[in-house]
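Fill in residues.
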């Protein structure tokens, strides 16, 4: 079978869905390569800063690693802005959705919220409320997100910072994104919470 016969999903057979599942599982094995490619594309993305979006991402991950962050958080720091091209108004949620099947919920939550928390540094200049993040003040990972933004994200626009290259982070990307999706060993019990 090269393709399934059905034209509507409701008409598919068990054999066809087993066939498609095998294809999807094989395709999923290429996720690390696609993530690395998407990161490389950030080198030709949004301009105006003193560093490219890729350099910003690498610098954020370099700072996280230098601070002793674990591998999940380092990879999250690396891909936190991967959605800038395709999801400019919800890039945080885009990146969090990529991470969610492979990392602990804290990491997913921090990346999901980092765009809102980053507003603290600039949104008041544009008439916004820089303290909007305070609505999450009682959340157990609030401080993690504050720290992510303060120590790594907002600080990573420095063209003189000694930033590690993408090749340095590639093994980490491969380890995280080849984990079994939603494995409780890594993500805990699955939480169907839209706030993650």
């Amino acid at each position: 079978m090269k393709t399934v016969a059905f034209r509507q999903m409701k008409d598919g057979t068990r054999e066809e869905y087993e066939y498609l599942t095998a294809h999807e599982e094989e395709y999923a094995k290429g996720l690390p390569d696609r993530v690395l490619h998407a990161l490389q594309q950030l080198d030709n993305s949004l301009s105006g800063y003193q560093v490219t979006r890729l350099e910003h991402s690498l610098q954020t991950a370099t700072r996280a690693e230098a601070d002793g962050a674990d591998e999940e958080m380092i990879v999250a720091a690396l891909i936190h802005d991967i959605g800038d091209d395709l999801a400019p108004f919800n890039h945080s949620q885009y990146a969090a959705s990529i991470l969610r099947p492979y990392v602990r919920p804290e990491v997913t939550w921090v990346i999901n919220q980092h765009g809102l928390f980053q507003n603290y540094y600039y949104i008041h200049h544009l008439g916004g409320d820089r303290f909007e993040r305070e609505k999450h003040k009682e959340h157990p990972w609030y401080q993690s997100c504050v720290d992510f933004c303060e120590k790594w994200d907002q600080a990573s626009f420095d063209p003189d910072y000694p930033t590690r290259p993408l090749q340095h982070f590639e093994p980490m990307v491969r380890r995280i994104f080849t984990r079994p999706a939603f494995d409780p060993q890594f993500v805990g019990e699955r939480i169907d919470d839209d706030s993650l």
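DSSP finds nine helices and no strands in the chain.
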